[in-house]
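Sample 1 of the test manifest.
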Amino acid sequence: MLQTIGDTREGFLCPQCHQDMGNLEMLQVHFQNVHMKQSSTVVKGLFSFAKQKLKSVQNNFQNSNEPSKIYSQYFSFDSHDYHSKKQYMGFTRSHYTYFQIVRKDKLHEIYTKTQQLLLRLELLTNINEHIPPNGNTKERRKYEQGIIPWMEDSVVSICSSCSASFGFSRRKHHCRLDGLVICNQCSRFILFSIARRIVDSNTSSTNNSFTIQQLMNLKTITSSTIINNASNEDHLRICMSCARCLQNYYRQIFFKNIPKDEIFHYYENIIQAKKEYTQVQLTYVAIIDSILSGNTKYQIKDAQQVYRQLSVSYEKIDSTSKKLVAFADKCPNIDENDISSKARYATLCRNIRMYAVQVLQNFSLSTRRVPTEDEIKQARDAKQRSDNELMEKVILSIPGINGKTLELSEELKPFIQQYYQVLQYMQQAKLAGRDDEVKLLESNLEELAQAMRVAHQN
Ligand SMILES: [Zn+2]
Ligand SMILES: [Zn+2]
Ligand SMILES: [Zn+2]
């Protein structure tokens, strides 16, 4: 991309530090990361600079002297071209269904385990159950073992979590949630108050109490040492596997309930608009293809109508993501003094905008504007020419016919077209391994060739 002509450098140079960034996207990323902290006028300058660059790219694309050549780079409107014919996929197999089955089983397993743990946790910490007070008292153990039997000490010689051998310095302990024997190092402790919060987290009364602060505490809902806090609060010893299971459950509930920041909704809107665009684009390309290849099924006004739909989605992505840039400057909902959160919030907003700009660029480049009457005529002529060329080639490939002496008469054209089509079907059938069909098509070809030989002799 970088060209050096004397002292003149060309390419996507950074207007600040004159580094060549290779392409527009990299330049934007570089600029936002390195120079964005500077005044907003510079930023505006970059955006107008970027827009100019993009515009010139688009102009190149639209005002080319060879519309058909440029166009065919992006769209194949001539599916009958002998040389650049479509490549078929060959054998494919989707493993998605299998993946879903495996995943479903796994999810079910996790769900069942989690529900079991929650049920036990509820019984183990429910104040209405008159649980014997904390400590290694016999009554307490009896109560705990009534909920989940403990694994027999004598049959276990290694920790079920770290596999280290038990002995004098490594004593056996039990996870209160699944009864497994673990060592002290692999033990986690959960306070009754936190256990209650997890058990009650999915009930409506606590739904509104989720805060960012709690998110920070997610990892510490269990601890690796017994907390001797002032009130000497009751706690449970659990294994790491059970602790992880509870954490994951709580995290899920948490993210389901925490009020989403506005930027989530903006982001979702952008993604939605992107989906819409991609879908409508398929229709649009099909319509343009049809018009350019000489079909009369669609008119220019059909293309224009769909193009307007595309513009709506395009605008939506652009305007929504622009709002996010304003968010990046103001950082609403973030504490004034929380510098690092503000920085991350602003980066997130700008990154979404950058992503949107990239999406829009790709859309610009991959979407042709509605062709003019002139362009349609040119494309149709080009198609006519290549059709004729193709037919001449097909004629040469028909056994028993000397193509050089054969005039491409109007009566013969349908035969040749059909011959070519059957050839293509046959290739597809061969690729897919449908041998019976190949044989049938082969005999069809021979019949066609025979018919043409007869016509040729007359
Ligand atoms: Zn720079
Ligand atoms: Zn262990
Ligand atoms: Zn456990």
